[in-house]
Amino acid sequence: MRSMDAAERRARLGVRHRLAAAARTDDVNEVARSLVVLHATDPATVFLSVAARGRGCEPGHVEKALYEDRTLLRMLAMRRTMFVAPIELVPALQASCADALAHKQRKTYARYIEQAGVAEGAVLPWLSEVEAETHDTLLARGSATGAQLGKAVPRLRTQVDTAPGKSYSKPTSITTWVLVILGAEGRIVRGRPNGSWSSSQYTWAPIESWLPEGIPALSAEAARVELVRKWLRAFGPAPVSDIKWWTGWTLGEVRKTLALLDTAEVDLGDATGLVLADDLEPTPAPEPWVALLPALDPTPMGWQSREWYLGPHSPILFDTNGNVGPTVWWDGRIVGGWAQRPDGEIVWRLLEDVGSDAQTLIEAEAARLTAFYGEVRPIPRFRTPLERELTS
Length: 392
What we know:
By secondary structure, the protein is of the alpha+beta class.
């Protein structure tokens, strides 16, 4: 069995995730492809993840790919998490993850509507009518906010109490529910935000704005194979448990998918990992590199087994729900954390000694990041102990 130790995995990470200096690029789409998808629960993460892997990239380059060229698309996929995906990967994400999510969310929301007794007749047909009317309205308008759609489609303003009789009971309109279902089904997409690139208040557009014929259909089996192949190319070698965690699928679904791929087992030292069978060649170690990665960046969030690049730093760099904060990387390892203060200053703290050369590179990255932010001051959606401490 071929051995791939932590040092080799770190070398692969630096090259394939475009963090090593020689691997960096200002091609936004190539950055996204290198990571399979960009984590987008926090809108700023998308922009900062691209910036960390570029040389002179600006927020406008990311906005152009998202909203003008439309080569990237924002969607819910693995683990009911928001991602920005290369447009060519959307069919695989839709069939392998989003379709099942749409089915689950429709059942959940329909149950709440039925319990509230606000629909006329059978709930699912009623809900489908509201969805169709909302989609048709977007087709006619081109784009709209949730509030604008609520005015145009009166039934979106239907109020439902999901916890009647409880102290925390609070009736809510079904607008967001319908938009989530339509988005998960691939019928509408989140467009340009209202405000800066770090805003989470989006306009909505019909999928036809990105894909005139809609999302091409794939079987769930073929979609899973495509997605895992891309993940192994970017994140392998890794244990099967990491694939299961990242995809959010059952172990049975993961195993069936792997049976359709040509993979090889490798010795990771403390576990057995998988790589694609044609991907066993050693990766030459790149020149030592530094990166300042944002909260929820796809690299630290790409594996469930993180000891080989995280070390003992999890308690201070992750929140209680397992979300990573801003991290400082040195040559394939997390060695500290960073934050942006209200005045725009980028501050960091090293959690281990990395030497003066590394600190000089960190200072340069912090200066580059300061320029990228400009006047924007986003607050990470998930606050971690070190990030809070650095900004206090």
